[in-house]
Amino acid sequence: MFKKNFVVIPFLLLTVSAAFSQSQNSDYLNYIEKYKKIAIKEMDRAGIPASIKLAQALLESNAGRSTLAKKANNHFGIKCGSNWKGRTFHREDDDYDEFGNLQKSCFRRYRRAKDSFIAHSEFLRDPKKANRYGFLFRLDGTDYKRWARGLKRAGYATSATYDKKLINLIKTYKLYEYDKPGGGNSLPDRPDEGIAGLDLRRVNSAKVVFAKNNITVQEIADKSGVSIKSLKRYNEMLPDVNEALPDNYRVFLQPKRNRFRGKRNSTGGNGKWHYVKEGETLFDISQEYGVKLFKLRKRNRIPKGAEPQAGERLKLRGWRVKKGERPRLTTEPAPEKVPVIIDDGGDFMEEDITPQDPNPMPGDRPTYEPGQPTTQPQPTDPAPPATNVRYTVVKGDTLYSISRRFGLTVDQLMRMNNLNSTALSIGQVLNVK
Length: 433
What we know:
The structure is a single chain. This protein has 433 residues and is of the alpha+beta class. It folds into four domains: 2-179, Lysozyme (Orthogonal Bundle); 199-252, no CATH class; 273-325, Roll (Membrane-bound Lytic Murein Transglycosylase D, Chain A); 338-351 and 385-433, LysM domain (Membrane-bound Lytic Murein Transglycosylase D, Chain A, Roll), CATH 3.10.350. The chain has helices spanning 2-46, 50-61, 67-72, 113-125, 130-133, 144-154, 162-172, 217-224, 228-234, 282-289, 293-300, 399-405, 410-416, and strands spanning 88-96, 102-108, 199-203, 206-210, 250-252, 273-275, 313-315, 339-343, 348-352, 390-392, 429-431. A hairpin with a 5-residue loop joins strand 1 (88-96) and strand 2. Helix 6 runs antiparallel to helix 7 (162-172) and helix 12 (399-405) packs across helix 13. The longest helix has 45 residues, at 2-46.
C-alpha cells in the first residue's frame, strides 16, 4: 500500500504543478491582452518601450494578482516618496527602522490601473531623477535588453537578476512585438496563419501577401484561393496577372481599411499623420498603411491624379482636414517667402528673408544709415545655403517620437541640441538635421 501511494503522489504533484504552470501562463497572456494598449500609448507619449513596461508590470504585480495591484491599483511597486500627495497604501516590504525592525512601507494608491501605467512613465521621466534614469531615454527604443540592464543598474529593484527576469518575460511572451511601428498590431511585423508558398502577413488588420521569388498575381490567386476579380477589387493599380512582381510588393487578400487603426506610424508618430518622403506617392502610402487610396485623397482633400509634395503631412484617420490645411501638391509652387528661424542668442523668432538684388542696375546707389562707414564692403563669395532643419515641438511630442520621425536616436537628438534632460516644452525648436 505504501509503495503504491509513493508512486502515485509524485504523479499527482507533477499534475498539479503542470496545471499551475498552465494557469499562470494563461493569467500572463490575459494580463498582456488587457494592458498592451496603454503600454503602447505610453511608449508613444513618453518613450518607454512597451515591452519593458509590460514586463515590469507583469513582474512587479504578478500579472495583476499581487496585493498591491488588487488593493491599490499599483502595478509597478512605486512607493510614496516625499512629494506624493495622493492616496496611500501601507504594507511590509523592505523598509526598516533604526533598530533593524521591518516596518510598513508607504505605497502610492491609484484610482485605476491605467493611472499606475502613466505614473510609471512620469516616475522614470521625472527631471529630478534624470541623474538616475535619464540615460535610459538615450537608448534605442527597440533595444529592450539594454533597457532591462539599465533599469537594474539604476537600482529600480533590489533583485540581482532583475534584468534577466525582464528579458526572459519579453522573450517568452514576445513582448518585443509591441515595440515595433504599429505596436505589433497593424503594420506588417507579425506573420499571419500560413499558406504554403506565400509570405502572408497583416497590414492594418487586413491580410496581405509580400511578393517573393518573382511570384505573379495569378500564382497568388491560385495559392490563396482568392479570385482574380476579388484581388482587383482589393488592390488599386494591380499589375498584370502574369507579370513577375518585385520583392515585397504587397497584394491584399482582403479590402484595405477606411482609416489607419495602428497606434504608431512608420516614423514613430502617433498613427494619425504621415510625413511624405521624397519620391513617395499616395499609392505608396496607401500600400504602406493598408488604407484605401480614395479615402486618403478624400480625407486630405487631394484631387484625383494629384500628388502631395515631399515633407507635407497626410492625415491617416479621422475627419477631413480643413481646406486651409490641405497638403501642398507637387503642381503648386513653393511660397515666395520662407519663414526662417533665427537664433539671436536669446529667444527664437521668425523673420522673412528678402534677398538683395545681386545684379544692381548702373547708377544704383546704396543707402547708408547715419554713422555707417561710407566705404563699401569688399565682395565676398556667397555663403553656402544653410542645411540645418529645425522642428517646433507640439503637444504630445517626445524626444523618442521626434527622433523616430527624423531617423535619429534620442542620444543624437540630445547632442545636436545640447540637451541635458529629455523634458520638452511646447514651442521649443530643435535641430533635426
